[in-house]
Amino acid sequence: xxxxxxxxxxxxxxxWEQGAQTDFDRTLTAAxxxxxxxxxxxxxxxxPRPEVIVSSPAPRALETATLIAAAWPDPPAIITEPSLYDxxxxxxxxxxxxxxxxxxxxxxxxxxxxxxxxxxxxIGEPTVLELPTAGLVWxxxxxxxxREASPGGARVRECGxxxxxxxxxxx
Length: 171
Prior knowledge:
CATH superfamily: Phosphoglycerate mutase-like
Shape: globular
Helix content: 25-40%
Low-confidence stretches: none
Radius of gyration: 15 Å
């Protein structure tokens, strides 16, 4: 059985709500854009190339996904998944279970707390991770199909935020 790779990313640092702007409409700050670019550069240098990126449609998440994808000359496709925004803890898990089994490497960009809870569920450790902005956890799963991902069925390959933290862990 070939290993599946799941890269879970929390969106980059976002501006706080201003005026009539809703939480959904928040955009990345300059620091958030740099964070997202660093994640893309790091994954391009050290990780597997995602076959697809699945992102929340919220502007801060979609911009993070776009900046990560830009790290490759031939960027992976980005698919928006509305259920990743304001998701309950199982939201990202349901998205992962519905992934196309032909894809072995997928990057998901979402929001806390659900993206961190998803990682916790997959590694079988409740409330261990609290991904910071632009935090990434790279998981390896031996599930034959995405829908067979199970609690404790994933191994953490890398976990960190930004290139400096990730580079300090090897990879």
